[in-house]
Amino acid sequence: MKRLLVLFISLVFLASCQPSIKSSIAVTVDDALQEDLKDGRLLLIFSTNHEAEPRFGINDRVETNQVFGMDFENYQGGEIIKFDTESFGYPIESLNDIPEGEYTVQAFIQKHETFERADGHTVKLPMDQGEGRQWARAPKNIYSMPKKITWNKESNLEITVDQLIPAVTEPADTEYIKHIKIKSEKLSEFWGRDMYLGAHVLLPEGFEENPNQYYPLMVFHGHFPSDFGGFRTVPPDPDLNENEYNARFGIYGYEKMQQQEAYDFYQQWISPDFQRFIVIEIQHANPYYDDSYAVNSANLGPYGDAITFELIPYIEEQFRGIGEGWSRFLYGGSTGGWEALAVQVKYPDQYNGCFAGCPDPIDFRAYTLVNIYEDENAYYQEGHFRKTPRPGHRNYLGQVDAMLEDMNHRELALGGKKSRSGDQFDIWQAVFSPVGEDGYPRPIWDRYSGEIDKEVAAYWKENYDLRHIMERDWEMLGPKLEGKVHIYCGDMDNYYLNNAVYLTEEFLEKTENPYYAGEVAYGDRAEHCWNGDPDLPNYITRLRYNTMYLDKIQKRFEASAPSDFDLKNWTLIKN
């Protein structure tokens, strides 16, 4: 005991002897960029890569840049912002622990806007500017040019923010692809300002020539689309470099493969024997993320109702959709996979089937590797004498390259404690959580320590745990979901999403009166985002969402479409 006490005193003494940081960091905003700057978050980013901009190199991998973040409010023109040297950082938490040496440094300001919501809360959040809520690329955000420095604990940095990210260029309509944007009355009322929903619409061959034909609607859910993807009316660019390596998939020439797949889809689309239908990709970025998860939320507002009862009827009216629940289908992967299943469950009469590939957690007993109902801490499994950190990301061999704590600390450094990072755990929290006393999402766990809030977990369970909701309400939901639920996931999903699918399948297979009569399938050693084809690799099937479920949709039509629906070319004639 005496030896342990001596060791503890020694550690305290060593910590007190460690030199504290004496640096000062002053950030000046160029006069031309001060006019609409009031509130925001200032990021200070360090990089050892002197060729690339530091703002683009913050990630969950080993080779990440270093970032520190601090909020500021009520900026006054001409002020110099003194960076708080006690600010939290990722992956190194303290500026005091940055090794001395040469770095490229960049300052970045993400602007916050004030929202006076209908629930009585006033919040300050970074609004989407048409880019899909990507802070490093968001128009109106401002930043400094990269600056090479020699860093030590007594450095005095002066940085000038003098660069403005320009506005996004909207895509132009084409013969087949149209772009729409509508004001949502439901969302505008909630947010206290005009809020909009958009969509990219792929029209069927012969749309203009056949004005009496009406079409089914396929809703392709997923992350924010800048334009309709995977559709190309000309062959691949012959000048593409086929030897360019794609690190994500470990193959060469992937850009050409993508263009070839897009052109092949176009060839199918215009062929005389191909089914006729409308496909939409929705733009529903918001102050928290690049999309809303397509459900109603206490923090985001009624996005589910706005999409289902405002946007989709508008599209069907404009482009001759059939406009009935039996004629609408949902599919997507990852975020889009969760949305496909959630929308089908939340609006069972409005859609006729979902195809959910690699969905985000659909059972919160496996919220990645955390059971939010039973575990006390998200970041560690804890015993009496040791604790083991929980992995956050792996490859198909199970090799781990990021811990759950690391991933959450990155978001904490980027966005602070109010779910403003625009990243994955923050949007899950924003969608699923109740509103906190301060008007921001109430945390499911302490973002620094990982301690889980069981009251919040109980709220999540009753409102967004899709397996629990189906099981709880099967007597009512079962007849409405029979034959509509299809889920696909790789058994080596990088984010451990397959664990929630296992638990959901266990429930679905036990259903009675009725049996769910759908499908759950797994890809052997398949990573994120496997979506149902056992014979092709992910890097191909992820490009075929708009065609890979057509046979299954045909069976749904055979079981549920009215007699005047043409089962061959999928059209309904109206005079």
TrEMBL record:
User: A Pfam family matched by this chain, by name?
Assistant: Esterase
User: What span is annotated as the signal peptide, if there is one?
Assistant: 1-15
Q: Where are the transmembrane segments?
A: none
Keyword Kinase part of the UniProt annotation? no
Tell me which PROSITE patterns the record gives: PROKAR_LIPOPROTEIN
Key words, A-Z: Signal
SUPFAM superfamilies hit by this protein: alpha/beta-Hydrolases
Q: Does the keyword Transmembrane apply?
A: no
Q: What is the protein named?
A: Putative esterase
